[in-house]
Amino acid sequence: xxxxxxxxxxxxxxxxxxxxxxxxxxxxxxxxxxxxxxxxxxxxxxxxxxxxxxxxxxxxxxxxxxxxxxxxxxxxxxxxxxxxxxxxxxxxxxxxxxxxxxxxxxxxxxxxxxxxxxxxxxxxxxxxxxxxxxxxxxxxxxxxxxxxxxxxxxxxxxxxxxxxxxxxxxxxxxxxxxxxxxxxxxxxxxxxxxxxxxxxxxxxxxxxxxxxxxxxxxxxxxxxxxxxxxxxxxxxxxxxxxxxxxxxxxxxxxxxxxxxxxxxxxxxxxxxxxxxxxxxxxxxxxxxxxxxxxxxxxxxxxxxxxxxxxxxxxxxxxxxxxxxxxxxxxxxxxxxxxxxxxxxxxxxxxxxxxxxxxxxxxxxxxxxxxxxxxxxxxxxxxxxxxxxxxxxxxxxxxxxxxxxxxxxxxxxxxxxxxxxxxxxxxxxxxxxxxxxxx
Length: 438
Description:
Strands 3-4-5-6-7 form a five-stranded mixed beta sheet, sandwiched between helices. Strands 1-9-10-11 form a four-stranded antiparallel beta sheet. Helices cover 50% and strands 18% of the residues. β5 (250-262) and β6 (267-280) form a beta hairpin. By secondary structure, the protein is of the alpha+beta class. α1 (9-100) packs across α4 (207-216).
């Protein structure tokens, strides 16, 4: 080699360039892995939060379906009591008419025969329907209400279990942070006190539900009234009857038929038929409306009340669960936040994949751990449980949240400042800038 020759300098430059290229490749590989793991962690947090919220929404929908079943069963009890009252009324009316018309050839005996046949039918109904009424009522109070309560209580446990299970299935190396436990405590408080409540008997809590049950009666149970003679100012034949829920503890039906004759200075009522039946939890002296029977046929109503066919097997209006303050008609929702962490030692960065090649003179190989906030990656996700009809109502009116319509859903939402601030220490930061910036 001649003095001053530059041969070999290119090799040095090539080695420098190769070293820079190798370092850059390792850098790209490392941060590619970090970004990939961050996305996987965030997806796991999203899946966990959404799954927990869906579980709570399904719990609310189950309770709504339970309430609907309770309404249907209570209406069935009202129908059976109505049938017993009407059957008793019809049997007595046929018997009275057969005696009134006994002097008419053919008519009196025919009516007497029909009355005798109906008495057999009535005896069968009075014997078979009360056990069914009692069974349905206790199914509501003992089975459906209990199932509703169990579903409400276990929803929190099920949601928390889902967070752990879904996180493990999506990213086994991830851990549920302590901040999630704090968020779950907040969620539990909102679930127990801020969304629904148990309606108890005796304090007016069930007033709205009683009104709903009365509105849900079919036409036969609700109002069995009819005016059986053409309208005229002197004679009126009034059939009145209906079945009412009284004092949260009694389904009572009453049916009456009276002939009214109006005079110039007054009127008279001649009872022709009457009947009444009830199934109760306790003795109730309060009167119902019964299709206007007490108002329009008072004498017949007193006779019906005295001949009441009473059964004491009704369990009372079920103590259902409903949303808090339903009459206020406000939107109600529930948030479920999840914070996850992925420790730095579980990240497959270059310093961990190529440990022998990257060992430093002091023997250390962990080049990136100090760069992680909280020595790892972190993710925060929030889901919301909300009420919304899948389609608009046909009458155009807005439907507010309730536990009678199974329209509870869940979706992901942005974490709010409170959730960010609460989870900031677990994510290795003192203050979350997104929690303080407008």
